[in-house]
């Protein structure tokens, strides 16, 4: 049986209290002095333990106010859902809206539509010709009134110029359905997932706590000719999101 | 064979030079003017090509100093590969080893096997009874001699106690194959992906630069009875890894 170091034991005890609900979201964690006495350990050990829990996103240390159990309900994102809806030909449902309402929370979003010469990365992913333009639909998304994540979807300008995709405002049946109607259904997607620290702009727009990384999820959708017809870039604050994929083994 | 656009051809030439080592880590990439002359292309094409390589994590553009081959290229992880190998019944191939060797780099790993009472999170995912034990195979993985990521696989003790999984050392045909032989093939997996700042311990073991987040990839494998038989936790430094999933739309 692997032995835990002292600070790991303290962290484990606190973690258990949080996971079992003994310490609930919003509750204050006992002070360092209290924890030193409770566990008979040094201040340094208490700090290492709290540092561990902070890194796991379980607690939030606020200067002068104390340490609290985080409101920790990461939103479960299922990137396969969007694709499933397309398969089933169901009324198209925004997968973010679906994820949020499934948790009994209230989604909202602001959309800005513009025509841009995209960054080299996006241009490359869309296989645009030199100087090629894209329509981008930028979304800032809210949950229960708080900014939550961003989702920017790029489309080749030539492909969508005459469609609703290039016009401002929401598309009730979804941009993916419009692509289908234009003769470019997405039959394959490639999802790239990475993480990094946020830019200053992202920190501000998404009101991130200091030290919160973001997960970047980039989906490229291909039509039956293997032409990329959409690039969707989601920036997901790591303290508020969890991404889940489910894979089934094919029968022989 | 799909035709490559001009900038993709330039990107491909530079990529080849980097992968073959003609351009080594830390080397300066020729200036835009030099590249324009070498390949007889416009500045925009050069920029698109460099943007492509930057996005792949191969090069680093530094203001006023120029463009350099990155010290560390992000390793492309394809979590679906492990599952594909299982499907095809091919000789089992560690997907990390596969990803690394595919890039012409040298993989290595150290494995420690122990019996533990796992954290509440792992215990819950493995559906262990109260106080239940797990065998954990902890791997610290290296690429070209540098620590790169960790992968800890947990198995219910009662299931694997008598098998190779509970014994120290590498299992050439893979632990997944051993689970199959024990009558518990994994026919479904659920992958949870999140990100956070590293713990102090992870920073040290993985020699992380300050401010580098980690991606946490947790795979739970289920047998035909829908019993969880394995939980694999990978901790992937965000500056060195990219995760990719590919999804195909099923035909109606």
UniProtKB/TrEMBL annotation, chains A, B:
GO terms for molecular function: DNA binding; DNA-binding transcription factor activity. Residues 4-72 form the HTH gntR-type domain. SMART domains: HTH_GNTR, UTRA. Gene3D superfamilies: Chorismate lyase-like, Winged helix-like DNA-binding domain superfamily/Winged helix DNA-binding domain. It comes from the Bacteria. InterPro entries: Bact_HTH_transcr_reg, Chorismate_lyase_/UTRA_dom_sf, Tscrpt_reg_HTH_GntR, UTRA, WH-like_DNA-bd_sf, WH_DNA-bd_sf. GO terms for biological process: negative regulation of DNA-templated transcription. Signal peptide: none annotated. SUPFAM superfamilies: Chorismate lyase-like, Winged helix' DNA-binding domain. Pfam families: GntR, UTRA. Keywords: DNA-binding, Transcription, Transcription regulation. This is Transcriptional regulator, GntR family.
């Amino acid at each position: 049986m692997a032995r835990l170091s002292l600070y790991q034991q303290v962290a484990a005890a606190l973690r258990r209290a949080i996971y079992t609900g003994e310490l609930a979201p919003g509750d204050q964690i006992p002070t360092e002095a209290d924890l030193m006495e409770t566990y008979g350990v040094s201040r340094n050990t208490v700090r290492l333990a709290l540092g561990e829990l902070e890194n796991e996103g379980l607690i939030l240390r606020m200067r002068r106010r104390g340490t609290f159990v985080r409101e920790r309900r990461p939103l479960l994102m299922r990137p396969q859902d969007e694709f499933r809806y397309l398969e089933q030909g169901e009324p198209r449902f925004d997968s973010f809206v679906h994820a949020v309402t499934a948790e009994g929370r209230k989604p909202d979003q602001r959309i800005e539509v513009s025509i841009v010469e995209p960054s080299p990365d996006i241009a490359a992913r869309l296989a645009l010709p030199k100087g090629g333009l894209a329509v981008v639909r930028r979304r800032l998304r809210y949950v229960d009134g708080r900014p939550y994540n961003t989702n920017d979807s790029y489309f080749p300008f030539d492909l969508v110029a005459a469609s609703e995709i290039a016009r401002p405002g929401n598309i009730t049946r979804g941009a993916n359905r419009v692509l289908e109607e234009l003769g470019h259904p997405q039959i394959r997607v490639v999802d790239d997932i990475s993480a990094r620290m946020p830019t200053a702009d992202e920190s501000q727009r998404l009101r991130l706590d200091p030290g919160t990384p973001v997960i970047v999820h980039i989906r490229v959708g291909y039509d039956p000719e293997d032409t990329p017809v959409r690039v969707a870039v989601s920036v997901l604050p790591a303290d508020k999101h969890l991404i889940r994929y489910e894979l089934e083994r094919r029968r022989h």
